């Protein structure tokens, strides 16, 4: 099959080539991939340590070529969105049916391919913050892939959404259009505390965001774009009036249960026009170097989608 192969000598570290067809386990469906999306964690992290010839990729959408042998998952011909720890950057992908969501017929596969890591992480993190209705929620790194989905989902959940970005003057209108009530810079210079934080920045921003938590508030740490360390003062963890029982939580998306239904719901929201996939770049997978370099250079605000031909 055709696939994007790791090649340190190629532009962007990837080249189109041939790889063996995957052999599905009994609980895996074989999916013919139509589109895949790139995540900064793949091109900045996983790609760097991968052996030459490896087929990487987390997010993909396509059609079930062969249903799982154990009877789980959708039937042949079903449009699906998929998550895995590798194998998305190929024409065929074997996918655990527990990490596969069913999409409404006719939905753009490119839009669906943006969902698994970014929207899935945002949805799961918001679940960890508890009920959102009438709560104040802060989303840091709001112009990134996870952040843009988190702003939309928090607003749909009834939250008062505060979006933080390094460039509020440039990106404020975009974030308000997605549902943010307020757009602030990374100093987080606002007075009223928040009930929950979804943080994708880390470093000093995470420390300041934790300090903004109200009593019983939770910060969900989803990722980190900062190169700086987190340094907390001891007083940050002292309980007092208004600061009691605050917590930090984290998670590994692919380690959770019930991801398939989450992906199905997210696909339905995209199909209905309730969730904007925020595609910032789209092209054929032969142009992967252009997309990867734009992600590494932080030139994209949104998702990069590769159409698989």
Automatic annotation (TrEMBL):
Gene Ontology molecular functions: oxidoreductase activity
Residue ranges annotated for the Enoyl reductase (ER) domain, each copy included: 9-306
Top-rank lineage group of the source organism: Bacteria
SMART domains: PKS_ER
A UniProt-annotated Pfam family: ADH_zinc_N_2
InterPro entries: ADH-like_N, ER, GroES-like_sf, NAD(P)-bd_dom_sf, Zn-ADH-like_protein
The protein, known as: NADPH:quinone reductase-like Zn-dependent oxidoreductase
């Amino acid at each position: 099959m055709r696939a994007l192969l790791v090649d340190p000598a190629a532009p962007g570290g990837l080249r189109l080539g041939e790889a063996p067809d995957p052999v599905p386990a009994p609980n895996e469906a074989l999916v013919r991939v139509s589109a895949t999306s790139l995540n900064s964690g793949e091109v900045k992290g996983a790609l760097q340590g991968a052996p030459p010839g490896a087929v990487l990729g987390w997010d993909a959408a396509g059609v079930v070529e062969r249903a799982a042998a154990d009877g789980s998952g959708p039937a042949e011909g079903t449009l699906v969105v998929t998550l895995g720890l590798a194998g998305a950057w190929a024409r065929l992908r074997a996918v655990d049916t527990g990490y596969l969501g069913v999409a409404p017929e006719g939905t753009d596969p490119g839009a669906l391919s943006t969902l698994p890591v970014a929207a899935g992480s945002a949805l799961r993190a918001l679940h960890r913050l508890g009920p959102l209705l009438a709560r104040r929620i802060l989303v840091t790194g709001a112009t990134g892939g996870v952040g843009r989905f988190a702003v939309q989902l928090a607003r749909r959940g009834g939250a008062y959404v505060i979006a933080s970005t390094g460039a509020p003057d440039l990106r404020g209108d975009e974030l308000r259009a997605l549902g943010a009530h307020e757009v602030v810079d990374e100093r987080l210079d606002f007075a009223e505390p928040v009930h929950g934080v979804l943080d994708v920045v880390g470093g000093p921003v995470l420390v300041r965001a934790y300090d903004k938590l109200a009593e019983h508030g939770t910060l969900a740490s989803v990722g980190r774009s900062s190169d700086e360390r987190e340094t907390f003062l001891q007083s940050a963890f002292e309980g007092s009036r208004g600061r009691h029982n605050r917590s930090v939580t984290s998670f590994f998306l692919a380690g959770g249960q019930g991801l398939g239904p989450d992906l199905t719901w997210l696909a339905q929201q995209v199909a209905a026009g309730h969730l904007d996939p925020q595609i910032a770049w789209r092209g054929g997978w032969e142009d992967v170097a252009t997309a990867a370099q734009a992600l590494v250079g932080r030139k994209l605000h949104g998702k990069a989608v590769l159409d698989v031909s």
